[in-house]
């Protein structure tokens, strides 16, 4: 078999059967060929970790003393803060500094339109000061002071549409802005797409405890917070503290009995259908109450075995963005987990800014996925017939 046809075989969308049957021989030998040609993204990963950690430093500073004037409302009524803009400016600036001779493409959540309006000068100056102070505190990139125009340019470096060809960085500068404003969980989520596939992901979760947040371990004596999760395709997932501890390899939970599972869902009730999640949990015999936290910190927590399942069912018509799942999905899959839409298809990050999904996103380990898919299918059918 040629490498090309072999790659086609392994990249086909897969359904329930993928998780329950052993792989056919041809697919196993394929994996060997593929793994022998896997690229290394070490340099990009190091740059992404550095950029996300810097952005986390800026966000922490803002969250500690959030001013009313730091929070504004976007056209869709969702909040945006000086830290969202500052984080995006820092990451965009840092990545361009690291790879000056490569074409730069960044798909990111924010743009500078509102900052260029009359009356926004003070906010823009505050963001620029935050960015400069953060760069200076780290001594990173050996750069002179950025002007407000430099900051606008860096933010608008994130205007790419992504797609299936070439390399694209994908950034949510603050995922879970509502959690950030509340003083709760949020994440800086940065991923790299290469030819439409996520090849690395970094999640900086400044408020996530290093110890488990689920079950008995949540009462651990280690109450340090601030986690950095990172994953590269074919190389596993690691977690370290944002203060710089040695990375440890993490794995999703190995539990096989769904009755022992606990599941994550959004803190914000409007982001996911809770009635559907609770029906699914009931079918699986899950006894523990849902764990509700904001942002892709859920993917990070799952990757290290806190809980076993993540359920996300946005209202009909809501279109998920790639920056809300790219980093989180590779962090979980490289830790041995599975991330699919509600019909069991892998997420496709190659179609631009949005994901085209069937009904929602579900995440768990390989062993529990067949039962979870069955419970999701039955619950969706029941909900549809009761309308
Ligand atoms: N109505 C909605 N349904 C689902 N997700 C939403 C909705 N509105 C906003 N979001 C996204 O949910 C993310 C937070 O997820 P979580 O609920 O897991 O904390 C936010 O980044 C936000 O994306 P964005 O701000 O990019 O539009
Ligand atoms: Mg987001």
TrEMBL record:
Give me the residues that bind Mg(2+), please.
109, 172, 174-175, 324
Q: In which pathway does it act?
A: Signal transduction; phosphatidylinositol signaling pathway
Recorded GO molecular functions are: 3'(2'),5'-bisphosphate nucleotidase activity; inositol-1,4-bisphosphate 1-phosphatase activity; metal ion binding
**Cofactors that this protein relies on:** Mg(2+)
Recite the UniProt keywords alphabetically: Hydrolase, Magnesium, Metal-binding, Multifunctional enzyme
Q: What is its EC number?
A: 3.1.3.7
Pfam families xref list: Inositol_P
Do you know which InterPro entries this protein is assigned to? DPNP, Inositol_monoP_metal-BS, Inositol_monoP_superfamily, Inositol_monophosphatase-like, Inositol_monophosphatase_CS
Does this UniProt record's set of keywords contain Hydrolase?
yes
Q: What enzyme class is recorded for this protein?
A: hydrolase
Reaction it catalyzes: adenosine 2',5'-bisphosphate + H2O = AMP + phosphate; adenosine 3',5'-bisphosphate + H2O = AMP + phosphate; 1D-myo-inositol 1,4-bisphosphate + H2O = 1D-myo-inositol 4-phosphate + phosphate; 3'-phosphoadenylyl sulfate + H2O = adenosine 5'-phosphosulfate + phosphate
Q: Does the keyword Protein transport apply?
A: no
| GO process annotations (BP) | inositol phosphate metabolic process; phosphatidylinositol phosphate biosynthetic process; sulfate assimilation
Tell me its family. Belongs to the inositol monophosphatase superfamily.
Q: What does this protein do?
A: Converts adenosine 3'-phosphate 5'-phosphosulfate (PAPS) to adenosine 5'-phosphosulfate (APS) and 3'(2')-phosphoadenosine 5'-phosphate (PAP) to AMP.
What name does the UniProt record give this protein? Answer: 3'(2'),5'-bisphosphate nucleotidase
Organism, as annotated: Citrus unshiu
